[in-house]
Amino acid sequence: MAVVKDVEARGMQHCETTALGVLLRHEGLDVSEPMLFGLGSGLSFVYWDSKGMPFPLLGGRVRPFELTVNLAARLGLTLTTEETTSPRKAWRNVAAPVDAGRPVGVQLDCYHLDYFRSTVHFGGHVVAMYGYDEHDVYLVDTGQQGGAVRTSRAGFAMARAERGPMTARNRSFTITAPAHPLTWQDRIVPAIRACADAFLAPPIANLGYRGIEKAGRKVPGWLRRAGDPRRDLPQAALLMEKGGTGGALFRALYRDFLAECTHLIDDHNLRAGHRLYAEAAVLWTQVSTLIAKAGESGDAGCLDQAGAILHDLSRVEKEAMRMLRRL
Questions:
Q1: Which of 32, 100, 170, 321 is found 20 to 30 A from 217 (Cα to Cα)?
Q2: By C-alpha distance, which of 111, 122, 115 is closest to 138?
């Protein structure tokens, strides 16, 4: 049995920021979850649909692990990442840091975790591992999933080795803070600008504000797109609000990040961006409510309303990011 001492198993709202919080607090850096999300330039949007998917996905953040890479680079942290196709080496890669007294981040498919409350495949899930014994591994997951939890070593291995969308090859990572860490408050403006630049100049029409506009055109046809509307639409709405997003498809987290920033930086563009993202968060929750209602009732009018709001959201978020890019 091995357990890292003095790990604060604080389950937060989003999986990757929860894991980052565990690793960074162990390195002596304790900031809020919205600040972690914002410093990692985590906000984005993708409308994802393909022939192999049973139903489209509305994603509200950057790709799995990109937030971690962004945050480490921005704060001058040493990010050590391991990937392998060998089950034996995969276990050594997580056991060794724990044996040395350090928590380790792990990307895996939550479908195989014993404690997980929904049985869906998601290969971009991230947890922090802080211990193990002969039968189980000890993890920190989101508050929604229980915070400090255990799962079987067999299930853990299957979750890490799963293949499919957003999976990684038994990815694990550790973070080391430098002897003289950068002042994170000085990295806020570059993080906001980088996020705004990516959102305003998406390489394809499925991303950023253009992706939201595309969603506005596509969502009204979701009753026809769904194999089982009473299942697919409420599930899509649930993922937007409760699927580790912090509510409103990550817009509530970014709103709270910007609110925290307004106490540190006096800038009218920042305050304007915060007001617009507060508006956007409300609108995203309205969209998810209408999508769920359409699935439950079969009323296509609800999806028409959701589409109209999405068109408004594309405009609101584009304007917000334009303001924030001026910081």
A1: 321
A2: 115
- The amino acid that residue 240 corresponds to is M
Which pair of structure tokens corresponds to residue 277?
Answer: 């993202």
Closest CA to 15 of 78, 105, 101, 91: 105
Digit-coded pLDDT (tens) for 83-92: 999 999 999 9
Domains (range + CATH), the chain = 2-30+78-176 (3.90.70), 184-325 (no CATH)
Residue 324: Cβ-neighbour burial (10 angstroms; 0-12, 13-18, 19+): buried
Q: If DSSP codes are grouped into helix, strand and coil, which group holds residue 150?
A: strand
At 35, which amino acid appears?
M
Check: CB of residue 86 under 8 Å from CB of residue 157: no
Q: Kindly report, residue by residue over 273-308, the tens digit of the pLDDT.
A: 999 999 999 999 999 999 999 999 999 999 999 999
Reported as type and span, the H/E element at residue 61 is strand 57-61
Angle between helices 188-200 and 208-218 (to 10 degrees): 50
CB 204 within 8 A of CB 302: no
Give the pTM.
Answer: 0.96
| Residue pair 262/270 in contact by the 8 Å Cβ criterion | yes
Residue 166, helix vs strand vs coil: coil
